[in-house]
Each structure stands twice: as structure tokens, then as C-alpha cells.
Amino acid sequence: MSALRRTFGIAEPVRRGMEIKIAREGEWRPMALGVSAGVSGDILVGRDAEITWEDVYTGSELREGADFHAEVERKLGMDW
Fold this sequence. Notes:
Layout: H1 2-8, H2 11-26, H3 39-45, H4 53-56, H5 68-75
Helix pairs in contact: 2-3
């Protein structure tokens, strides 16, 4: 971020930090569809062109899949 600050001024690192925070908070996918890869966060950080072991094997391959409808209802607060 210091290189961005020297090149573009104080506004660029502040804007980039806000975008990264928004991207991390806004990404949610049900477990039935797979773990969220965080694509927009990876693009902002600059890791969009690399594939790591964790991108392929997330550790959830052996777990039983969650019920899609129950997870969405819990996320939206519809679990009466």
C-alpha cells in the first residue's frame, strides 16, 4: 500500500482498503454451491492470476453437504 500511496496519494490506498473490505463482507455463497472463492477480493489484492492448493482442495470434499434451503433461511433470518 505504501507504493500506491507514493504513486497516487493518500486517496488510492484508502479507496482500495474500502473496496477490499466491501468485497470480503459481501461475498456469501451457500455451502451447497461450494465455498466462495473470493474472486473479487483476489482481484483487488492481485492474486487473480494464480491458482493455489487451497483454490482446488478446500477441505470440504469429505464433509456432507449442507441443506441449501435451511442455510438460506438461516442467512435471511427465516428460521421461525
